[in-house]
Amino acid sequence: MDRIDRKLLELLQRDASRTNADLAEKIGLAPSSCLRRVRRLRKTGVIDRIVAILNPAKAGRTLKAVVTVELKLHGEQHMRRFLDFATRENAVSQAYAVTGQTDVILILRLRDTEELNAVCERLFEDQSNVTRFYTMLVRRTAKDDTAISM
Amino acid sequence: MDRIDRKLLELLQRDASRTNADLAEKIGLAPSSCLRRVRRLRKTGVIDRIVAILNPAKAGRTLKAVVTVELKLHGEQHMRRFLDFATRENAVSQAYAVTGQTDVILILRLRDTEELNAVCERLFEDQSNVTRFYTMLVRRTAKDDTAISM
DNA sequence: CCCGTCATGCAATAAAATTGCATCGTTTTG
DNA sequence: CAAAACGATGCAATTTTATTGCATGACGGG
Q1: CATH number at residue A107
Q2: Does a structural domain hold residue A28?
Q3: Considering its fold, how many domains does chain A have in total?
């Protein structure tokens, strides 16, 4: 993992649709050498996957919310059960067990407030293990990167 | 935007590295027709971009943290200034202005706790516009999807 | 100093994307 | 109601791109 690999990763994290020849030229290598590096990065798992990122508005998910969740019972199995439950919801795009002010943080992608309500009703129903939860609607997204700076 | 488009988007959000011929076969179209659909989805911006997703551990960012931030001054320009400031930090992967319990939520990707400390010192220094902030370390990531379910 | 290892570039080959064209179903228009 | 227009499709030819074999040169260990 040298300077060239890092440069490759930077480029591919921004745009993985460019051709290998382009990529090769940008980093100053022959196409074949470049390709072999990229393949190695994929094989070793540094590059996990190549995906399409949609425009949320044009894909019909205009609303984003962050929800912090406090659990009643904190045992490992209770935590796991809640996370499994939350993970199954399509609207949940990220789900984290955290230390500190709360127990779980969810990030939701929603069509509208109606869907928000429906998801909350399912996740935080009476017999669920949730003491309380705070819903914060995203007013403005200043940054939302998939890239990891190298 | 019909059933086939939605199926295409589902597939491409999981794996955009497959060949057009593969994709075409999976959805039951000829390669040329499939390609034209994908190109349209890109051109109209439904597909925003194609990117490489790295394995955070193998890319040297093992630590993730969620930080909630309360501002002193809440005017639009103060909010903007803080968000601009936060956005410039490489470790900040997501930055949201939100309604509700707090003002700003940041999601950080860090090498170690030392970097966490350094970032916090820069973002929440004395003359910054921050009343207080809560740092929550991610213990477990149950879900972290880039996909939007269609 | 020689050998083994590894990454590289070049050129040939294989695979994939792209395009032109004809067809078919649907909608619009006269 | 029929004709025209539009859009999406499949096929096959063409262009572009990825991939591979091979020879070269750099580097480190014995």
Answers
A1: 3.30.70.920
A2: yes
A3: 2
Q: Between A and B, how many CB-CB pairs are < 8 A?
A: 216
Q: Is residue B97 in a domain?
A: yes
Positions 27-66 of B with beta carbon below 7 A from strand C are: 31-32, 35-36, 39
For B18-41, how does the pLDDT look when each residue is reduced to its tens digit (9 = 90+)? 999 999 999 999 999 999 999 999
- CB within 8 Å: A56 and B15: no
Find and give the residue nearest to D10, measured CA to C1': B30
Say whether both A25 and A84 belong to one domain.
no
Exposed/middle/buried for residue A128 (C-beta within 10 Å: 0-12, 13-18, 19+): middle
Q: What integer pLDDT is reported at residue B126 of this predicted model?
A: 79
**DSSP label at residue A110:** E
Whether B17 sits inside 8 A of A50 (CB atoms) is yes
What's the pLDDT tens digit per position in B79-96? Answer: 999 999 999 999 999 999
C-alpha B143/C-alpha B146 separation (Å) is 10
The position carrying tokens 């649709």 is A17
